[in-house]
């Protein structure tokens, strides 16, 4: 199976985790696009969606799925999204699609995060994929220096990218993230950091992993 076929496989499998009659949290990215297309087949059985990006909102609305303002929602049963990497504890690196801040906001609304990925995204230690960090533009140079001094990471400004929130993105290379909770806490306190793309405090509770043998379900305590 191709990588795109694996993404479609887990996108369809995620429908089993949608709670009938509820509002669904919807992430961003190529795998989530397959989930949105599958969600359209049961759109009459849900109350709508809360979206983590403009692109996902546009795709949901094109399918006739109502998109609700996150500010009007107190809790949702489930948030379904992909990841750039996921480890054996359900901790993730996210932000390759530049939507990490809104993704973390929607994840915070959810009772359960269901991650949908193909098998290439499963890692033992986070950091092979460059860590995205959304930053206030004037702080980018200082934050880059912090990563070099504290973690030996090389931060590169993602050229030509402005987030939906009007900020810049740094991609930090050369990291080995053995303590996702600790690094997320530390980096989040640096002045000028909007969101770091480590999802440890908002880690996945379930991962639907697309493999050549089908979809494997991983659960994390």
Architecture overview:
There is one protein chain. With 221 residues, the chain is α/β, with parallel strands linked by helices. It has two domains: 3-123 and 201-219, Rossmann fold (3-Layer(aba) Sandwich); 131-195, 2-Layer Sandwich (Alpha-Beta Plaits). Helix content is 28%, strand content 24%. It is built from six helices and 13 strands. It has a six-stranded mixed sheet, with helices on both faces. It is globular and about 50 Å long. The two termini are 30 Å apart.
SSE order and pairing:
Elements: H1 3-13, E1 23-26, H2 30-39, E2 48-51, H3 54-62, E3 79-81, E4 85-86, E5 92-93, H4 100-109, E6 113-118, E7 131-135, H5 140-151, E8 154-157, E9 168-173, H6 180-188, E10 193-196, E11 198-199, E12 206-211, E13 214-219
Parallel strand pairs: 1-2, 1-3, 3-6, 6-12
Antiparallel strand pairs: 4-5, 5-11, 7-9, 7-10, 8-9, 12-13
Order of helices and strands: HEHEHEEEHEEHEEHEEEE
- What's the CATH C level of the largest domain? Alpha Beta
Fill in the CATH topology of the largest domain.
Answer: Rossmann fold
| Global outline | globular
Question: How widely separated are the two ends?
Answer: 30 Å
Write out key terms for the chains shown.
Alpha-Beta Plaits, six-stranded mixed β-sheet, globular, alpha/beta, 13 strands, 221 residues
């Amino acid at each position: 199976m191709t990588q795109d076929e694996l993404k479609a496989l887990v996108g369809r499998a995620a429908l089993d985790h949608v709670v009938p009659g509820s509002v669904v949290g919807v992430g961003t990215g190529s795998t989530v696009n397959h989930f949105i297309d599958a969600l359209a087949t049961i759109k009459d059985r849900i109350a709508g969606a809360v979206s983590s990006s403009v692109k996902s909102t546009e795709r949901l609305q094109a399918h006739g799925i109502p998109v609700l303002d996150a500010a009007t929602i107190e809790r949702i049963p489930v948030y379904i999204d992909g990841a750039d990497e996921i480890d054996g504890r359900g901790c993730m690196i996210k932000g390759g699609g530049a939507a990490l801040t809104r993704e973390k906001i929607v994840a915070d609304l959810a009772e359960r995060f269901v991650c949908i990925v193909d098998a290439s995204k499963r890692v033992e230690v986070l950091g092979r994929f460059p860590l995205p960090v959304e930053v206030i533009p004037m702080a980018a140079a200082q934050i880059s220096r912090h990563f070099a001094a504290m973690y030996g990471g090389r931060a590169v400004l993602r050229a030509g990218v402005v987030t939906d929130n009007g900020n810049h993105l740094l991609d930090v290379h050369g990291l080995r993230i053995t303590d996702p909770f600790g690094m997320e806490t530390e980096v989040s306190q640096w002045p000028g950091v909007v969101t770091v793309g480590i999802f440890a405090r908002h880690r996945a509770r379930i991962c639907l992993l697309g493999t050549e043998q089908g979809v494997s379900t991983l659960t994390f305590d």
